[in-house]
Amino acid sequence: MNPSADCPYDLWDETIEFEGRWLRTKQIRFRERKSKHEGVWQSSHRVTKPANCEVDGVDILAVLHKNGQKFFIFVKQYRIPMKAWCLEFPAGLIDEGESVEAAAIREMKEETGYTVTKVLQRSEGVQGLDPGLTDDSIQFVTVEVDGDDPRNAHPEQQLQSEEAIEVVLVECNRVLEWMKENEKKMHIEAMVYSFAIGYDLGQKFKNL
């Protein structure tokens, strides 16, 4: 990846320090052009991004409609780097030749067992996940799931053998309240928590 035209740094001597099946780590020397400060930046990068794809993966904002109620669909996944269960959006990497929307539909089926009824929207551009550490990036896809559809009567996950994932349904109108009740029982991914705060604020502003 080349630096943007308005990059405030001189960058040189980029080297690969480690390369594995899923990740490579790099370091690069930099000089801030105004202060002339020099240093070394270390970073982590996926090696799985498909050619001609802007981003590595997709995160899915899924709303389940069932019996007249609305739920957000999250997943609780055991993450070895955190050594803990983490609450996340359904998500995954994009396969070669796959659209972002198709990846979202596939990952929803695999991780939650639910069949997507309707794709509502997809974000554009590049949404970085932790840009001080990595160039790992996603786009968001928002979907609806009809829980009264016979295909979703008894959803069955299609997990890979190394995955430990549970489906978590949270009523939309109490999503932030639920987070506060459970934030000490598991790690809640920052994106999920910020989404809950934003959704709660939106509901409050709507009622002003």
TrEMBL record:
Query: Molecular function (GO) terms listed?
Result: ADP-ribose diphosphatase activity
Q: Which UniProt keywords apply?
A: Hydrolase
Asked if the record carries the keyword Cytoplasm, the reply is no
GO cellular-component terms in the record?
A: nucleus
Going by the entry's taxonomy, the superkingdom of the source organism is recorded as Eukaryota
Fetch the SUPFAM superfamilies from UniProt.
Nudix
Tell me which residues make up the Nudix hydrolase domain.
53-192
List the PANTHER family hit by this protein, alphabetically. ADP-SUGAR PYROPHOSPHATASE, UDP/ADP-SUGAR PYROPHOSPHATASE
Please report which protein family the annotation says this sequence is part of: Belongs to the Nudix hydrolase family.
Q: Could you identify this protein by its name?
A: Nudix hydrolase domain-containing protein
Q: Which source organism?
A: Mesorhabditis belari
